[in-house]
Amino acid sequence: MLNNLSLKKKILAGGLLPLFAIGLVNVLGLINFNGVVESYQWVSNANKVIEMGNNIEKSALNMQTGERGYLLTGNNEFLEPYTNGAQSYKQTFKKLKPLIIIKESLEALSAAEEILDGWKRDVAEPFIEKRKNMDNTPDSLKIISDMVLTEKGKGYFDKYRQMMTVFETSEKNLLQARIRDANNVVSMTNNIIIFGTATVLVLAFFISLFFVKMITNPILKIKEAALKIGRGDLDVAIDIESRDEVGEMAKAFTAMIERLNKMSTIAHQIGEGNFNVTVEKYSDKDVLGNAFKDMLKNLNNIAGVAHQIGQGNLNVTFAKRSQNDLLGIALENMLANINAIMFELKHSVLSLNSAASEILATTTQVSASASQTSSAVAQTSSSIEQIKQTAKSSSAKAVQTSESTSKAMEIAKSGTQGLVENMQGLAQIKEKMDLIASNIILLSQQSQQIGEITSTVEDIANQSNMLAVNASIEAVKAGEQGKGFSVVAIELKNLSEQSKQGAKQVQKILADIQKVTGTLVMVAEQGAKAVESGVKQAQNAKTSMDQLNATVQSAANAGKQIAASYEQELAGMDQISGAMSSVKEATMQNLSSIKQVEESAHDLNALSQKLKEVMERYTIARNIKQ
Amino acid sequence: MNNVRNTLRQRAIKAAKKLENTEIIDGIELIYFRIESETYAIEAGVVSEVHKYKEPTPVPFTPAYIQGVFHMRGNFVSLVNLKIFLGIPEQNEKVATLCILFLSDENMEFGVAVDEVIEQKRVSKKEIQTLTAGFDLPRADLILGVMENGVIVLDGKKLLADPTMIVHK
After folding, report:
1. What average pLDDT does this structure show over A206-210?
2. What is the DSSP letter of A313?
3. Residue A140 in 3-state DSSP?
4. Which residues are within 8 A (CB) of A24 and not within 5 positions of it... i.e. 6 or more apart?
């Protein structure tokens, strides 16, 4: 969490946290100081009470003194301290009473007041009254001195003093206790200030140290990394998790290292000869990127030129970029030298090439005419052979034909025999067909008769139906007695219905039979006709057969004559074939020798052509002239 | 042969069965007959008998629906063509007229030519539904009603009492 703070906030935290702690200690001291002041107020309060107690005692003494003086002198002047003392006593007592907090001293004071009041009531006032009525004669004085000597007042005042002493001692004890408290508070304040300050100082030191470490540690790491990079070692990893400015600086460093790594990889690849690498330019002011790009561009340029020369294109323009461009100068020189050599070579190859071409053309012509002669001879020879073969096969065919004709004659004879038998069979079929036809006609007539009978049946059925209806009408008319009769009528009706159905079915069957017989009659007639035409065709076939016999006979004779003439022709053909063979041999020998010459010329030409092709691959710079 | 015996046996079994309560209360006895393809019915009470058809003797100066007269047990009875009388449109296919239905009551008797008498049957009067208005027969008043199976039931009594049947006036 602290890592996420910015540097400014970290520094502020390092300074402000101790300050805050010191402030805290100060506030505590201040609070305690207030306690000190308060306790001293309490002390002064106690002092005041004691003083007032003293004043009260003094007033009481004044009263006593005033009373005695008056008693002794009778002079009113002496009464003044008495009355003043009583007054001041009352005033002081009123003021003092609310200030007292200890019950014991309050009780003592109240008791003292009561005693004083008792003195005033029992001693002072009666004595003063008595004295007012007397004069300063010795007798009166004697009475007064007796009065005084009664020591009545002394008893009161002793008690009074005793009470006041109680009061004073309790108040003094209180004062002592308060002084002790005040001293305690003071010493506590001292402790807080001394020890608190010490603790805070130590704490502040550690907090500051923590924040300082937090800020300086990453910076030290970065410094180490920077030193390593400076030495050329790019295998640096900056492990900083903070997100402040230092963290960002670390990220920038990491990016820089990555970039340097990438560039070194690219340089390595270029060193290995791979120019096909892309260099990213990170900004317009990316010097390293630009330099790499330029270098790659130049290297690619040179590689391209070298490639073109390799491909045979010597007509490339290439200029060295400076006097120090060693590679460029070497390439330029190489190009110029190759161009000069190639130029000369090309000219010589061209003249060689044309000479070889001429030789080849001449030999080709000679060879062509020789092979024409040879092929003509071969053709003639093969034609003669063909004629011979044809004559042979013709002769064989003539023999075959002669044989076939004699076979044909035999077949024709057996065919005639078969036809005669066929004609006899047909005549029998015709007789049977006639019989069938007459029978069918008879069948048809009989079925007609059955039809008539069934219509009669239907008629009867209709009538009985009618009868049934009439019967049922009568049954209805008869009423209750006719019910049984009505059942009979219904049965009769059903019966007539059934016979009607039966008749209908018979009629249907008959209609089917008639249809079939009709077609049968027709089929029989057609059959008879077909048989008749068959007989006729058989007769025609027989006459044709006889004619065929005659023709085959004459063909057999002609075939025999042809075979004989072919035999003679074959003998003549054999003689011509022998003569042609010797001519063919001679031309063959001639042709083979010419072929050899032509092959040599061909080889020569091919060689020169190849040379020319090789030369053509090189495009020589135009500005080279001999 | 066996078949016929079987049929007879079944019929015997059927006949031997006690008649179930087929009696239709509030029923009417009807004679069903067919003119061309239509089936009609008429009360059995007005039908005196059914006779085989025979050509009547035509009588001159009579309406078209009187086909003629014939002799019947000593009486001359007129034959009415119901198709013409009821104004049923002529159909193309002619069917042989086979029967004559004799209708009669105490005052009147005449025959009606029909193509076929089918059967006599007792039906409930509820089955006969009276015609609603707009039925296009000219003499719809002579029709008692129509049954669910499409059979037209004629009113025999009204037919017999119809004044147009008396020709001699």
Report:
1. 89
2. B
3. helix
4. A200
Report residue A469's pLDDT band, with 50, 70 and 90 as the boundaries: confident
Give the one of B47, B52, B98 whose C-beta lies nearest to A473's C-beta: B47
Residue with tokens 């069918």: A440
CA atoms of B105 and B110, how far apart (whole Å): 10
In whole angstroms, give the CA distance from residue A283 to residue B107: 136
Architecture per CATH, domain A339-616, reads as Orthogonal Bundle (1.10)
Contact yes or no for B50/A466 (Cβ under 8 A): yes
Beta bridge partners of B33: B40, B117
The token pair at A103 is 């019950």
Answer whether A66's CB lies under 8 Å from A85's CB: yes
- Please indicate whether, in this complex, the C-beta atoms of B50 and A462 are within 8 angstroms of each other: no
Buried residues in A336-370 as b, exposed as e (16+ CB within 10 A): eeebeebbeebeebeeebeebeebbeebeeebeeb
Please name the helix (run of DSSP H) or strand (run of DSSP E) that holds residue A293, with its range, or none: helix A287-311
What is the radius of gyration, based on Cα positions, of chain A? 84
B130 in any annotated domain: yes
Return the residue matching tokens 């920077």. Answer: A226
Which DSSP string do the residues of A321-371 spell out, in sequence order? SSTT-HHHHHHHHHHHHHHHHHHHHHHHHHHHHHHHHHHHHHHHHHHHHHH
Does a structural domain hold residue B104?
yes
Closest listed residue to residue A494, CA positions, set A536, A465, A514, A467: A465
User: A5: left (phi > 0), else alpha (psi -120 to 50), else beta?
Assistant: beta
Helix and strand numbers (H, E) in chain B are 3, 10
Strand (E) or helix (H) holding A541: helix A483-616
Task: Tell me whether residue B86 is in a domain.
Answer: yes
Closest C-alpha among A297, A240, A287, A288 to residue A264: A288
Task: Say if A465 is an interface residue toward chain B (CB within 8 Å).
Answer: yes
Whether A472 sits inside 8 A of B49 (CB atoms) is no
Residue A470 C-alpha, separation from nearest chain B C-alpha, in angstroms: 5
Q: Do A472 and B47 touch (CB under 8 A)?
A: no
In angstroms, the CA A50 to CA A168 distance is: 7
Optimal mutation site among B42, B117, B118, B122, interface A, most CBs of chain A within 10 A: B117
| pLDDT class of A252 with cuts at 50, 70, 90 | confident
Instruction: State whether A473 and B119 contact (CB < 8 Å).
Output: no
Interface test with B, best of A460, A464, A467, A472 (most B CBs within 10 A): A472
Determine phi and psi for A138, rounding to 5 degrees.
Answer: -65, -30
Nearest to A34, CA basis, from A176, A188, A175, A174: A188
Helix, coil or strand: residue B69: strand
Helices marked H in B17-155 — which ranges?
82-86
C-alpha distances out from residue A489 to A180, A271, A458, A504, B66, Å: 156, 132, 18, 22, 31
Q: Give the number of domains in chain B.
A: 1
Which range of residues forms the domain containing residue B65? Answer: 26-165
Strand pairing of B152-154 and B116-124?
A: unpaired
Query: Among B147, B141, B85, B142, which residue's Cα sits nearest to residue B111?
Result: B85
pLDDT tens digits, one per residue of A319-336: 777 888 888 888 888 888
Check: CB of residue A219 under 8 Å from CB of residue A246.
Answer: yes
Tens digit of each residue's pLDDT (9 = 90 or more) over A426-461: 888 878 877 887 888 888 888 888 888 888 888 888
List all residues 6 or more positions away from A110 whose beta carbon is below 8 Å from its beta carbon: none
The CATH number of the domain holding residue B47 is: 2.40.50.180
CATH 1.10.287.950 domain range(s) in chain A: 339-616
User: ipTM strictly over 0.85?
Assistant: no
Spell A601-622 as b/e; 16+ CB within 10 A means b. bbebbeebeebbeebeebbbbe
